[in-house]
Fold this protein.
Amino acid sequence: MDNILANLQLLTSLAPTINIELIANGLLVGAIFALITYGMALVWGVMDIINVAQGAFVILGGYVSFYFVNAMFQIAPDTPRLLWIILSMPVAAVAVALFAHIVFKLVIERILDRDLFVALLATFGIELVMQQGMNQFFSAEERIIDAQLPTFAFMDYMVNIPGSRLLGASLGIVAAIFIVGLVRYSRFGRAIRATAQNVRAARIMGIDTNRVYAMTFALNGAICGIAGSIVAFVYVIHPFQGLVYTLRAFAIVILAGIGNVVGVIFAALGLGVYENYSGFILGPEFQDGMVFIIVPITLLVRAWIMRRKRQYLK
Amino acid sequence: MAQARTSQWIASLAFLAIAIAAPFVLPNNMSQLVDLMVFILIALSWDMLGGQMGYNSFGNILFFGIGMYLVASTQVWMGGYSLAEYNSAKGGNLESFVVTAPVYVTSLIIGLAAAAVLNYFVGLFVGSQLLQTRGHYFAVGTLGLGVAAGEFAGTMDVLGGGSGMNFLQPPEGVNLTMLLYWLGLGTVMLFIAFLIWLHRTRFGFVMNAIRDNEDKAEAMGLPTNKVKSVSWAVAAVFTAIAGGLYGAGKNFIDPTEVAFSLPTIGVWMLLMPLMGGKGTLWGPILGAVLFQLFKEFFWTYLFGWQRVALGLLIVIIVVFFPDGVMGGINALRERLFGKAKSAGESGEAA
């Protein structure tokens, strides 16, 4: 209790510049969360599948990126690191998209018309297979790509922002703009949205909805791959960390609602800031728990609000 | 209906006979048998909501973990030691904390009773709130709650923090696995008898009505909210007892790996009713037995890859055999003898 008060005092009076650092770091990590959540909301909205394996896809993307960058350093040690890190994004995207497509063909396709609980449990199984498989293949060691970027200091070294976070967030924003643009303006994107709005009508208009489902799931894989390659050089990659990313995405989707892109962005940035603050005030051991508890609390608040209108969350 | 009831009593007596014989037939597999009793308890209590009421919870692990911590703490406290002192001594001289055999046994039983009572109210409270959400929102919300509980348990220094806590060492003269097995079997038989009785009461029918159509049940004036939270509270009681037994058997509590371990026990307790056939009385029990066999097989022959195999098992069961063994038996019976005559019976098996 005392250290919490001391931390609060630090934030409010002793060293208010820490606030800037916390908010900046929160917003930067929030950009990655937004990317991951956009993929989850896409699959949820279009196919009515809640993908618990989302986090495992992200981690898989991180491993692909890690091994790609390391291999490239070995082959061509004199080339700039940044080039390979940026190039690893499309590589991871393609690799995870292919993996996601295999998962779709093997499992997801068979549970499309079943209820959501089946999807939850089946993707949970996939998450377990992936996390344990990655643990066997890549070992339980924490991996990180060293981007060798400087840490930028502002305000007489009171505010420190690692360059890798800045790079990661900006790459994430570029990727997000590209993907949202794809869904908004391309023919494929229009087919996705038509399927999400009304499957029957989309079929009547000649859209191959099964193909749309497959493409959507692969696109989600690509998004996770990109997010994973960013996570690999900004944070760390560990086989068992997937569920944390999944639950963050849950929290953001529930906060924002499905199909609300602007809401997802704001909720993701907000969650990033909230996470940094709770980690700082309560101590780092509370950080994950405070994120997870957001999921039931948001649901409860939404349920209370709807109860007054005699409705319920379904 | 009376006939069905008699056959269920006969089946439970047969189960009891097998369970009593089991320790004498398999004396070398006692810890696996204890686990089996734990699994039957958590599978049956998950099925109360998931199978009978249509609320698929990922968060029953919450009660499991609370029960485990509570039993361990009660034992330390009744042994006359301070919990904080006991947990800070971990890793070093835990041997100095000794209790006599009668104290160990009574504190274990009182701990289990305390866990049962406390978790009834935890279940009632959490249920009255979280059961306001339906369908997959309930599943996702309970999932968040379950993992959050593990993280928060890991921050409490009085409970040993992130590195967990040990159970008291059983003193000389206490055959721990035997004790846990008979306690577990007693609770299982109590639970089975309770469930057979419950599903013939109005309360049990309201549970099924909620599963079939909650809006209609509510419109008929049935007390759906009360039934939902009380059912979850009862499920919480038996899950907590299972948690206490499991923890005492394992002798060690890790907040996220043992007590509130969603990726292992937390998912297994859903898988077992699905394997056996959810929404039936004997499905979860059969599922627990099958699951324990699969698990032991994987652990023995696929060491290192056993968790991958378990994950694959989940996917395969969910995708290809969602109705489980009992569902298969019922489908077979319908094909051979036509539809079951009693509407209540076939509705229950659905």
Notes: Chain A touches chain B through 46 residues (CB under 8 Å). DSSP finds twelve helices and two strands in chain A. Chain A has a mean pLDDT of 88. The first helix of chain A runs from residue 2 to 14.
